[in-house]
Design a protein that fits this description.
Layout (H helix, E strand, L loop, with lengths): L10 E8 L9 E7 L5 E5 L2 E2 L19 H18 L14 H4 L15 E5 L7 H4 L4 E6 L2 H9 L3 E4 L11 E7 L8 H11 E12 L4 H6 L13 E2 L2 H10 L2 E3 L3 E2 L5 H9 L5 H4 L6 H14 L4 E8 L1
């Protein structure tokens, strides 16, 4: 086996774990660390895992919120934050450095410019929660491999191609490409990032958000850390390996941002209620006040369960 990012063949065994979230298999999967670039890799029978058979019909990003009121509230929050930042013809500026938006899952908005003529590609757009709102400010195309999720995104008015980057043969060039919690699912991340390099305009921006394998919560909960999501997550990144990948593909990564994102409650539930289905288990442990406070503290410690970066095409 060789690393698909750096071609190294020397790995360190980290741990072995089952599909804790969705139980799509009774197999155990190994996670190894590449000794050269530092990426963690999910393996099955000594090979890099093929994750395609392990996506369940109730996989979270492929379905809508079950409770309409919560879904609407989430969309309104996204719309409000996007509306503050993406005003036609204006450059996004860092106004909220120490507020929630600056450290949230949308903090990349502080570093990009969106204009009405901008062209955005949302790779792995899911049901179109973010992409459909970005489409109010610029031209947006989504790519989504799951047909049901792609249709839900179209129902929101988003233009979506069903498939993967390999199926995307557009001759257009984009100003901005978004990979929000998608990179970890890709079997060959270097090839896909190089593909994105080709379809980005000069000085175009690539936004990436991924789980952070260096997270303190990962070290606390070990195999029960909810960020693993094995075997659907193939590659697991930390700041070092993410920067390595981007530079090898021809990008200059900007500052790493640590999200206000805690998996403490869900990871604790994975351990305490491991015999329950995931959708029932994750609501069993509620540490609302603690987790809200903890999610603010983690970025200050540079130990959040998710990181993001804006990289420029060079």
């Amino acid at each position: 086996m060789h690393c698909r990012i750096c071609n190294n063949t020397i790995f360190k065994q980290i741990l072995t774990l089952p599909d804790i979230r969705y139980r799509t298999s009774k197999k155990y999967f190994d996670i190894v660390k590449c000794e050269h670039c530092g990426v963690f890799i999910t393996c099955e029978d000594t090979h890099i895992v093929n994750s395609e058979p392990y996506y369940s019909s109730d996989y979270g990003p492929f379905i809508e919120e079950k409770h309409k009121s919560k879904s609407q509230q989430g969309k309104q929050t996204v719309t409000k934050k996007i509306s503050r930042k993406f005003q036609p013809g204006r450059k996004s500026i860092f106004l909220y450095k120490y507020t929630q938006i600056a450290l949230s899952r949308l903090s990349w908005m502080q570093q990009v410019t969106i204009r009405p003529e901008s062209k955005i590609l949302d790779v792995g757009c899911g049901t179109g929660i973010i992409g459909s709102h970005l489409a109010d400010f610029a031209e947006v195309v989504g790519i989504e491999p799951n047909a049901s999720a792609a249709q839900l995104a179209r129902d929101k008015g988003l233009q979506v191609v069903t498939g993967t980057l390999n199926d995307f043969n557009s001759q257009e060039q984009f100003d901005l490409v978004l990979l929000s919690h998608v990179l970890e699912h890709l079997p060959d991340p270097l090839a896909d990032i190089q593909h994105i390099h080709q379809i980005l305009k000069p000085k175009g921006k690539l936004i990436i958000a991924v789980p952070n394998v260096n997270a303190l919560e990962r070290k606390i909960f070990n195999k029960y850390w909810d960020g693993w999501d094995v075997p659907r997550h193939i590659h697991h990144f930390n700041p070092k390996s993410l920067r390595f990948l981007l530079r090898k593909a021809g990008f200059e990564p900007g500052q790493i941002y640590y999200e206000q994102y805690s998996l403490f409650a869900r990871s604790f539930a994975n351990w305490l209620f491991k015999n329950l289905p995931y959708h029932k288990r994750k609501g069993k442990c509620k540490f609302n006040l603690f987790e809200k406070t903890w999610s603010i503290i983690q970025p200050l410690l540079k130990s959040s369960s998710a990181i993001q970066v804006v990289a420029e095409r060079i």
